[in-house]
């Protein structure tokens, strides 16, 4: 298929974009408490729609009796679970609708009742036991699913479809998985069925998420391969994260790559070439909405300042610095006739902690992006200043508050990632810190390039930035003293976190490089280990002494039953130090 990757920009004088928000609850954990769950708050904040998360999806309130009475039969635990879920969903959807919001829910596809799949396994599954969208009976079941949803929930204005991952943590009587068992043609089959049932027959809206792991979501050739086989419709949208991969950052080392030469663009590619704005945004012939995560799961989850509003709206500094080809920001796509909305995740994404006590920083990110979508001709700074005023900050302190927020973006970039690129983005994520298990091959490259000092200096520079943030935070005056205290406490938390990161890299990169050369500087290693241990103790004590603070990070954790936390790396160097004690 031959296509032209042309960005369709026709000035519409700052068209107002639709705004939608979702609270992404941690799978398998108690639901997040948030003001963003309140429909009246969303409406007052400029949102048009509320998106209900996966386990609040309409598919879990269906009894399937119109399809087959053997599914969820009466007087069973399964039927009671569905009926109880239906009561809760009816209330939540109605409350959102009464607040004047459009009501959407995000569905995992393909997920069906366990009994349905078991009874019709031959008709629904392939030889490997996976539900197959290519089978006529599976397609019949999907059409029934959609009909049941809109028949039972007339409050529903549309559906958001997720296919890249499947979470069943809070769905004990359902099972399923990705529809892709035969290749990208499965996307086409599914989209066309949904287009027919949702957009055509019901005149409802359909948002099809492109999210996968580096192909449909990231590379134009795959995006166009799928979407070119689907006719546009006024109610059909494709939903795309603003980043080429997940909600990460990294310096772009090649400003205008030829994406047609990539078969995948995922973690290795992101570490090597960087993380530009998603090149699938603004291409093709279909309407799109852009996904923005306000509570950045890889960057502290709102435990400390981390302002991404300016970066998303006007472009992150690493994108500007690299000579990246435009577009690389929302402002550069706002006049495209394809771009119709912004979807914020005000809370959530990822797993576990850190657990926060105040959502101030996440609210800042979400509200600034949402208000920009409603007023795209206003500058990001104007919207930012309005937020500060509305939250009771003294007018004279707004410049200091803005400096804190802009510094936080720089401090996160240099303390977590690197302006030089070449760092594994997930060496720390959620509430965990890993060690050499993930970083070893990246350290090998840094060592080979003789750039050890440059990377270590960058972590020290990040710490200096966070010390400045801490100082400025102590000089702010909010009318609400709880907000004032949280802004300060969270800034100290950020300084301690990135001080620990500085210490971690000083231990790991120095000792690993020296070990490769056959001789470790034991005096330096002892000093760096002491720096790490003392900082961790300070951080833990600070969190204990300040209940407003978020929870501290973990140094020990498992991935695929493998211990990957930094504690394992530190234990190795403590053992080496002990073995060689007296030799330094």
Give an overview in words.
Helix 14 packs across helix 16, helix 16 runs antiparallel to helix 17 and helix 17 packs across helix 18. This protein is 43% helix and 11% strand. It has 584 residues and is α/β, with parallel strands linked by helices. The N terminus is likely disordered. The chain is globular. The strands form four sheets. An eight-stranded parallel β-barrel has the order 1-2-3-5-7-8-9-10. A two-stranded antiparallel sheet has the order 4-6. The protein contains 18 helices and 14 strands. Helix 8 links the parallel strand 8 and strand 9.
Distance between the termini: 66 Å
Low-confidence stretches: 1-13
In the sheet with the most strands, the strands line up as 1-2-3-5-7-8-9-10
Strand content: 5-15%
Radius of gyration, in Å, reads: 25 Å
Alpha-beta content class = alpha/beta
Number of helices: 18
Q: Characterize the largest beta sheet: strand count, sense, and whether it forms a barrel.
A: 8 strands, parallel, barrel
Whole-number mean pLDDT? 95
Helix content: 40-55%
**Looking at the structure, what is the overall shape?**
globular
Topology, number of strands = 14
